Amino acid sequence: MKMNLTDEQLMLSLLKFVTGVSVQIQFVDLYGNNKPSQIFNTTTATEYHVFTQLKKKKTGNGKNFNRGIVGGGGSWKGIDNSKPVYDWKRSVIGSKKTFRFEENNHVWIMKEYRLCDKAQNALIQSGRIQEEFVDGL
Which of 48, 56, 88, 95 could form a disulfide with 82 if both were Cys (CB 3.0 to 4.6 A apart)? Predict the structure, then answer.
């Protein structure tokens, strides 16, 4: 799905999605059983906006996530540090980080957008969300 969205618009779509408001971005399990070429049925350089659910690793402090494909199909590797995403008031509303997945002769690049911890925790404590989702493209 080709859309020209700003970082702030992507974060607002993510916020709507996690709180149950309908949005035009679909849910896809990027960290499930299928490689990106199987999910999107292509290896051409096309831009997609999707939501996916993060999967926590069993060890550690709960801040680490498993971005591997189930069954050993590969893993999304971080290629930069998280960068803050600001709203129009210059308040931090989330972060974005770039990931890479190599598959045969194709490299997939994903920019992962996450809500900031403060917003995430407030939504969890208020019972509006229970799981952690991200917007990937």
Answer: 95
Q: Strand locations in 10-88, DSSP E?
A: 26-27, 50-53, 77-78, 83-86
Q: 26, 19, 4, 8: which is closest to 136 by C-alpha? A: 26
Q: Which CATH class is domain 7-111+126-136?
A: mainly beta
Cβ neighbours of residue 63 closer than 8 Å, sequence gap 6 or more: none
**Which stretch of DSSP H or E encloses residue 97?**
strand 92-103
How many angstroms separate the Cα of 109 from the Cα of each of 9, 37, 38, 46? Answer: 20, 12, 15, 10
Reported as a single tens digit per residue, the pLDDT across 49-96 is 888 888 777 766 666 777 878 767 888 899 999 999 998 999 999 999
pLDDT of residue 79: 94
User: Count of residues for the chain?
Assistant: 137
Unique residue bearing structure tokens 């002769």: 105
